[in-house]
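Methods — Computational structure assignment.
A single polypeptide chain was analysed. Its primary sequence is given first, followed by the predicted tertiary structure written as structure tokens.
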Amino acid sequence: MCPSLSHLACHTRLSVRSQHSASQEDAERLERHDDAERRTIIVSGTACRGAFARQLRLSFLTLQRRNAVLDAPRPIFAVVLALAEPCS
């Protein structure tokens, strides 16, 4: 075999190996992605309620910091009455 053909054969073998490892890596990446999705979706009800409560508290605290005078805590009936009033 001449040196150029030997080099070509070696390069072809390396190319096939790199394609195989790339496809194997892609398959493993998909498996990891599927596992991550399952872990995200399968959450207990308690954890959901806790996360929701934390999000509400965080939203409330953020509002308090941005405009403490207008966003002061109000009794629930005052909020309901304000929402029930027609817009002018």
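Note: The two ends are 91 Å apart (CA to CA).
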